[in-house]
Amino acid sequence: MQFGIFSVGDVTPDPTTGRTPTERERIKAMVAIALKAEEVGLDVFATGEHHNPPFVPSSPTTMLGYVAARTERLILSTSTTLITTNDPVKIAEDFAMLQHLADGRVDLMMGRGNTGPVYPWFGQDIRQGINLAVENYALLHRLWREDVVNWEGKFRTPLQGFTSTPRPLDGVPPFVWHGSIRSPEIAEQAAYYGDGFFHNNIFWPADHTKRMVELYRERYAHYGHGTAEQAIVGLGGQVFMRRNSQDAVREFRPYFDVAPVYGHGPSLEEFTDQTPLTVGSPQQVIEKTLSFREYAGDYQRQLFLLDHAGLPLKTVLEQLDLLGEEVVPVLRKEFAKGRPADVPEAPSHASLKAAQEVTVA
Fold this sequence. Notes:
Keywords: Monooxygenase, Oxidoreductase. The protein is of the alpha/beta class and 361 residues long.
């Protein structure tokens, strides 16, 4: 399994001090967090994409290219690439360029985002969200696999004899995860192409996640990519840790109460009971994360949200130390127990290249 972190890049006042970081401070903090992730032995750093305050990551490939130059092993990904409002041609070119710069340490997660106004900002209609996701990805899929593309669709101008440059590294397109919280159409899309399905898994109860993952697995098998158990699944998660669980709850509560995504709603206790959020000791994080397999099956990627809601950089780096030193080593060992031999590892550039060479041979 791969373990890592994903960031939404929010710029939120620290409720305990009232101080709001500058955009520059927040951007630099995200880079520091990515570098720390590699230092403590994690596999993946993923950034979101937003085009509105209070978020800063409007250009994921710019940030990931910078991080690529300062890391050696870390897989660079996105926790949302807006397939609905970005031009598929630009996505194809940007991520192929990043592939070359990062020596293949690149994949990405397609999504529709959760900011309705972004559609008109980029000349699109939110009522066409699913249709945009389907058509745009169909084009992107071809752009990475065909040297010359002739194409006509509903939402952009036609392409005649078009070649996207640079071509994917080694002729191997970046692996794609399709991320969704609630849309079965996206699980279906991921299954159709044999791509990965990533369930955000930080808001909804386990039974909802179970239904979405099972749908994807069933349809993956239906389209002939392998058995349902061989489908490529990723999950999100959300943690805050201190060695003493009472200290974790006391410290995190003011941040939870005002967090942009769920503040002023259910209590911290209600939210931790009903969703995958874990606030407590490293052992509690281990136990709850291991329980994900009970409803998602053997899966390939686990990402955690750590840096949000105004948490200071120092605190986030402390969380990463705990994650890398005490939590992930145990999770790697425990998730490996009883894992069927035919369940694939998380795709990488090397494994995809090897598979392509076998196919060609």
